[in-house]
């Protein structure tokens, strides 16, 4: 089966209604963003759908907002990275009536701001501590964030206001955030980054979440599979599989760490080898 990795520009074209070729008409189009957990889960699903359910797949890499819009408009079939109930609350409010929730992929996820364990040991343990001039000076008045469309970015802006912090949120990609974190740790510089669990960086570095006494960044989250309306009628087995796909967050963290150390493809290969029983359960569930 062919697999097409489409760019953001292609996704934008799809949202404008450009027709796909007849050869692509029956492929399942899955939207994804280059977040560590989303990339791994999407590639696992891609392989199951193609190899076990004998259905072609197109992977459409784009930001999170176009994914929700794409599902609502019928330009995408699936997304496997809907953070609920808080992180993507705005998107659910806007598009929820026009898309379908297929079920929980994993739960006990968490958002927050992270610091190196060494800073935590020095006394930077709470978001409230960031109001101290000493910490603001050491951090250059900056919080390192991720992409502008992420729910975590919106919540981080809200957190800066809620705690009345004189800080700038630096918006960048997940890769840029982790690069900044790595650089700061190697140089023994102070840094605060926006973060979430699951993520490979929690296995790669000694990090601590800052306490959030005001709950500005929310609580435990669940990550859901979402589809366009009518997808289950067109692809009942694939829709059922997305609803059956469920993975323990600790197991997911292990493979995400491996994906960073080696490659996502290597981690997916190992997952299919070592967790074959789990994959069989998903497929059997989809066919019941």
Could you give a quick summary of the protein structure above?
The protein has 288 residues and is of the alpha/beta class. 46% of the residues lie in helices and 21% in strands.
Would you give an account of this structure?
The structure is a single chain. The protein is of the alpha/beta class and 288 residues long. It folds into 2 domains: 3-108 and 221-287, D-Maltodextrin-Binding Protein, domain 2 (3-Layer(aba) Sandwich), CATH 3.40.190.10; 109-209, D-Maltodextrin-Binding Protein, domain 2, CATH 3.40.190. Helices cover 46% and strands 21% of the residues. The protein contains 14 helices and 10 strands. The chain has helices at residues 8-15, 36-52, 64-73, 89-95, 117-122, 133-138, 151-162, 174-187, 201-204, 231-234, 236-244, 249-261, 264-274, 276-287, and strands at 3-6, 28-32, 57-61, 78-84, 99-116, 142-144, 168-170, 193-197, 207-209, 221-228. The strands form 2 sheets. Strands 1, 2, 3, 4, 5, 8, 9 and 10 form an 8-stranded mixed beta sheet that branches. α7 links the parallel β6 and β7 (168-170). α2 crosses α13. The longest helix has 17 residues, at 36-52. The chain is globular, with a radius of gyration of 20 Å. Residues 1-23 have low confidence and may be disordered. Residues 27-263 form the ABC-type glycine betaine transport system substrate-binding domain. One of its GO terms (cellular component) is ATP-binding cassette (ABC) transporter complex. This is Glycine/betaine ABC transporter substrate-binding protein. It comes from Thioalkalivibrio halophilus. It holds the Pfam family OpuAC.
